[in-house]
Amino acid sequence: MGKINTLLFDCDNTLVLSEEVAFEGCADLINQIAATKNIPLEKPFTGESLIVEFVGQNFRGMLRSLQERYGFPLTDEELETYVKKEEDVVIAKIQEKLSPCPNVDGVLERLAAEGKYELAVVSSSALRRVKASIEKVGQDKYFGDRVFSAATSLKPPTSKPDPAIYLHALKELGKKAEECLAIEDSKSGTLSAARAGIKVIGYVGPYKAEERLKMEKVLAQAGASIIMRDWNQFEGYLAAIEKGDF
To answer: How many CB atoms lie within 10 A of CB 155?
Structure first.
């Protein structure tokens, strides 16, 4: 195992508890689009039902999945308009009620003080949203301009589980995959990092108790080396990975 010198954090529900907040806004917008396009939804989406189905995908990915399922027309122009609108809706929600994941701030503070690792954010979400999230909870000081977004940093934009955003981050940071460790809470994110050759810690803290065991299996199958339930476990797991135990 090469020496790890870079930590790559997913943003949504890894650094900040944003999925529920964001999916509420998403659900409202998707229901509006469904009405406009006469899509016969079995029942309107809620934030919760959307999370179950699309956790880890960005809005562009969700719309493409829905388009495939229901076969409705969507021009590139319409897609871009909806993607921009979703960003606005979600950022407004984030600025109103976002909070950090439990115990992550202490970990970030210690890592920054230690100065041994470069810290970066690698997300599927739009750059504007990721920056609004980490700024809202005061985490932006740890990452500087090392914030990468599959929806914004890539041309053409993509979404995890495509490894493109991790490969882009490696290139921009001038790092090899074995020098990095990713922290991810979703199947698509874990697959994205693992496919880029990066070791992954799967984080299940924000999942409801009844979902957590299932997600532990899902993330392990997607390639996570270790499953972490609480950020308090992170430094111990990092040390174990560096020793070659995982």
So the answer is: 6
Distance CA 89, CA 40 (A): 24
As a 3-state breakdown, the chain gives helix, strand, coil percent values, each rounded to 5, of 55, 10, 35
Counted residue by residue, the chain has a size of 246
Question: pTM of this prediction?
Answer: 0.87
CA–CA distances in Å: residue 102 to residues 40, 142, 176, 180: 39, 17, 30, 23
With residue 32 as reference, give the H or E element that holds it: helix 19-36
As given in the structure block, the two tokens for residue 40 are 């016969």
Q: Measured between alpha carbons, how far is 123 from 118 in angstroms, rounded to an integer?
A: 16
CA distance 82 to 87: 9
Please write the tens of the pLDDT for every residue from 100-154. Answer: 999 999 999 999 999 999 999 999 999 999 999 999 999 999 999 999 999 999 9
Among candidates 174, 182, 125, 181, which has minimal Cα distance to 148? 125
